[in-house]
Amino acid sequence: MRFHVDGWDPTYGSSVENAENGIADSTAKVTPHIELAPADWKPISPSQVSAPGAVLFVDGVRRIEARIWIEQPPSVEPASSPGNAVRDARMALCASYAAGTVCCCPDRGAHLLTIDYRRGLFTTATNAADVPTTAGTYKATITADEQDQNLAVLLSTALQRQLTDLEVLVATHARTTLTSHGVPEDSDLLVVDGPLRGRTHLPRALGFIKSHRTAYLPPDLHTMIATLAPGERSPVFLMGTSWDRHAWYLRLPCTPGAPWAGVVRLECAADIPASAAIELANLSQALLPRYASIEYKDTRAPQNLVPVAGLERELRRHLGNPILLSRALRVASAS
Amino acid sequence: MTDTDSEPQSADSPGRGSPPATSWQPFAGLLTGGDAEGEVGKVAGTEDSTPLKFHIALSPDAYLQLDDVVSTRREIPGRGTVVTSGVVTEVVARHEGAAFGSDVFLIADGILPAKVQEIAEVTTTRVEPECYVPPRPGEVAIRAAGTARDAALYFDRMDARIPAGIGRDGEPIYLNLEFLDGTRGAHVSISGISGVATKTSFALFLLHSLFTSGALGARAVNAKALIFSVKGEDLLFVDQPNARLDETLRAAYAQLGLPARPFSSAGFYAPPLPGDTTGRPHVTGRTSGVTAFWWTLAEFCERELLPYVFADVEDEKNQYTIVVHQVTSRLRREAQTAGSDGAVVIDGTVLRTWAEMVGFICDKVTDDVTRPDWAGPAIGLGTVNAFVRRLRSSQRPLAPLLRGDLNTSTDRPVAHSIDTSQQQVTVVDLHNLPERAQRFVVGVVLAAETDRKEQAGPGGLLCTMVDELNKYAPREGSSPIKDVLLDIAERGRSLGIILIGAQQTASEVERRIVSNSSIKIVGRLDAAEASRPEYGFLPVSQRQRATLARPGTMFVSQPEIPVPLAVEFPFPAWATRLSEVADPTPTGTSAAGQATGSAARPDPFSRLPRPESDPWLGDTDDGAIDEPPY
């Protein structure tokens, strides 16, 4: 396979970087009467809950190392002028991604439990093969070409899918290693950074969404969210977009400011009883404010939780030096 | 406690008679020593790795402390394995993953994941073979032990070596004898605060090590030591075993390959008791085996000792030194010995005491008739008066030392003079003398020994230990004593005279003496003193450490090893005070000169049992001369 590395830094001209979260679905189906009737909706104060044996935070990071062009075999019809053959090339993404878990348990404090990283080549070119470089091998993932989809979005989504798979992998693996350091089985809570989509099968798992693009709730309920005091949460509701889940809003402790400052949305599986979802909501309400970050230390405070920030820093370190990786790719393309 | 300058025994005087107190724990490192070569970590890549300094990231379960010896190896294509060894000069522990100081609370609360990482800075001591390549990040670093440690510290290259103490890793540290005995270098300079730096104790330990380690071989017979004691009577018991000598201490000496015993051959000299006409030595603690020393007026005139009377620092600048030299030569020519007491007759006048002589000289130089002859021609009255004023001021301090009224027994004509040839260690007790007399004694004795060595030629070795060297060889000015010491510092190496100088502050000692010392030793230092350029041989971390070094810990710098090594030396095996003497019955040594003193007229009370309430037991004011007010 012959390929060329695009000279431009991959962060330029990529307006679809945020496509990982999907395009907001405004046709969400919301069932608000899970915990309280819509008429009775009011902020809910924290309640006494027993702390879990351990809190696991799962997160993944990704970085596109280079955009490359894979040469396509010459088309079957002979070129009109043999000395100036038509050259065709398909775009591909070379990306590094990593996922890991942090365990916060009473015995050992916050510590990294599992970290895994991969390098992948994402393309629609059917002749793509793994790219070995001095800095690791980029494993090829070939995605079916969809003519109506933006290619960049398509490849980015493929990368996100791989990252999600890796996150599930490390989360499952982390749970199995938990018992080895004195955390009673089934007493842990898993907090996934980002939507729970594709991971709802994980038991005792919460999705933690930091940013809000769409108003899912009906307007009257939506305005109530802005009135939440720090530590208070909204009642649990059921929402369905392309997938169903229980959700609630929670305001983390923060300096008062914008109406939605410090508000996060939490999700849990839809197929658990409402009482279990409410229990999880109460647990999250008691637990998560403790992990909220502080403005001067984190530009995404307070939503970017401290353990997650530490994990992300560690994961990015595991991705390696981007300059080195980019150079290794160029060397590989020349050979 | 008024004692500010005595050595370790004062540091733990409350625990006297009991096992060594906490202030003296020389063997802390003993427990941590190990023979196994264990990996402690890997060469770090986040810091620059150079052939002369590199860093080791430590494994979570390993540790390195300051002064540990480590080594790392690297394969060089075509050259084989290059082993780079060094000494840990700094260890840093950090939270990795924390960005703010307050993150430590989050980490402690179990909220922020972070890791503690220790990084040790290593200063290279040796690269073998000499291929100066940096250790590569990722190379395994091991704690050097056994032969690897010997190689790292050049002990394997020392043909003759003497133990200098135990390193922080619990293993012995050696000095290269060639840099002590004059083969390639000589002289020792010991600096440190009085009281806690244990300078005198370490100097004595070095002498013990030199004499008993066997490194000198046959030369040990001719190796002597001359010690000027200005700190009470501490050193008058070096031939007595220490009552505190226990199994632990014996084991410590055994580890160093040294016998745990006092100096076997020692002679002690003290000035005569003032006002006593029988020439008994002026000592209180030790009652026998001490010889009184003095100079007869005949010797004074004949050996031209007058310049040493004027040993003040600023003297050389003044005109009156012309008068001094004039009078000195005049005395040598005119003085006739009278009788057997050392008295002299000059111009028909019999002079028996220093006071008489001072009076006589003053008369001669002030009298208009005799002045041209005695003071020199065309000498102004002001100059003569300056001379007279200084001469008269010496009358009291020197009166006990310059005598013509003590009978020098005919069969021992030199019994009253200090003689280093009869025993291995000669201790001259000066603590009862005023400072001016101390300078006189040190100057005269050293000048005499230098002359003697010059005539005898090389072969023997004389270690002269001078405490408070800054008093005798100050940085500024010049004096006859300083000239003698400078002479020893610059020429002593070839003459076989080794100067062991101890001082509180090396910055106040003549620079040429310090720079001529091959072996530089530092005990506890004052913080301001530690920052002076005289201690440039100490790395920054050791300078800081020197300000908190415990009694018994010294930093030893020798020419071959680029990093000073921290050593701990064992508590003295000899008594350092009367209460530590294991066998209270004084035993005379083989010193020949003791007969004139107390042995000829034994102290009638010396054999009485010493009561428990002996006032000296609790006395820590040893009557030492006050320290200069720094």
Task: Describe the secondary-structure layout.
The complex is a heterodimer of chains A (335) and B (630).
Chain A: E1 3-5, E2 29-31, E3 54-71, E4 89-105, E5 109-123, E6 131-133, E7 136-142, H1 151-178, E8 188-193, E9 205-209, H2 219-225, E10 237-240, E11 244-251, E12 263-269, H3 274-287, H4 306-319, H5 322-334
Parallel strand pairs in A: 3-8, 5-7, 8-9
Antiparallel strand pairs in A: 1-3, 2-10, 3-4, 4-5, 6-7, 9-12, 10-11, 11-12
Chain B: H1 8-11, E1 39-43, E2 53-58, E3 69-76, E4 80-96, H2 103-108, E5 115-128, E6 140-143, H3 147-152, E7 161-167, E8 172-176, E9 188-191, H4 199-212, E10 223-229, H5 247-255, E11 266-270, E12 290-292, E13 295-296, H6 297-302, H7 306-309, H8 321-334, E14 336-338, E15 343-346, E16 349-351, H9 354-366, H10 371-374, H11 381-393, H12 395-398, E17 402-403, E18 425-429, H13 435-456, E19 461-466, H14 469-472, H15 480-495, E20 497-503, H16 511-515, E21 519-522, H17 527-530, H18 540-546, E22 553-557, E23 565-568
Parallel strand pairs in B: 9-20, 9-21, 10-18, 10-19, 11-12, 11-18, 13-17, 19-20
Antiparallel strand pairs in B: 1-2, 1-6, 2-5, 3-4, 3-6, 4-5, 7-8, 7-23, 14-15, 15-16, 21-22, 22-23
